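[scheduler] slot 2 assigned
[scheduler] job type: sequence-to-structure, two independent chains
[scheduler] chain ordering preserved from manifest
[runner] begin chain α
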Amino acid sequence: MRFAVIPTHNRPDDYRDAVAAISPQVDDVITVAHRCEYAAGTVVEYAPESPNISAMWNLGLELAGDHHVAILNDDVIVPPNWFDEVARRLDAGAAGASGPRCNEPSTQCIAGYAFALDGAKRIRADERLVWWYSDDQIQRCCEQAGGFKVIPDLFVEHRYPNSTTNGQLAEQAARDQDLYLREYHNAR
């Protein structure tokens, strides 16, 4: 089985577009809803005052179990072949896969807004990383559990990169960066 986990809060139109793009490629969409009423698929209510993206991802990952699972922002549109491409790398033994970050083919960094994990590898986000760097932490964990594959020509439309981070969550992102650099950056 194939699953997609999509955390969402306040982008109903973008969320619907994201779901429409991934739904034909998966068996179920697991929506981790932070105070929204437009969620579809299997809905997990997430109600803390402040969102923790790592905790939201982990809720969805637990529901997906040992299956292949996509983690998607609610503002991304994946191409029709996206899940097949990442699943091919997971089936070959990789713990995780994505296209290139920022659609730069030469990068070997996870596209944290659209990536997939082999649920059987039990990779989870460090919930101390509240808003930023949990994708990089996940890539490090995948590298130790079978590898992480960046597929150079697997591009994803990401509508609002950093829009929330540059605004209301900038201070949290700075704290996350400090924690990531101390705990994970040199672990490569």
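[runner] end chain α
[runner] begin chain β
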Amino acid sequence: MTGFLLGLMALGYSGLVLFWMAHSLKKLMRPLRAAIGAFALSCIVHSVTLLMLEPEHVPTAFALWGVPHLLLLPALLWSAWKQEKGGQA
């Protein structure tokens, strides 16, 4: 049960960070490019933090940010695509 709650918290945190960052970047660039930029920036920052961990903790940390990011990427891209499509009409 604790693992499920931890995974749910990681999914919620990743969603909050990715969508907030994409929203902030939308002020500088198109929505789809902002979504990809937010995903890339988040992956870079989290990858650098993995380098600072002890080797036995890397798989767990990767699972807590990698899996939620990959689960949220389609929703992030779909949302950005819908915003671009709506802006052109």
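[runner] end chain β
[qc] chain β: The two ends are 47 Å apart (CA to CA).
[scheduler] slot 2 released
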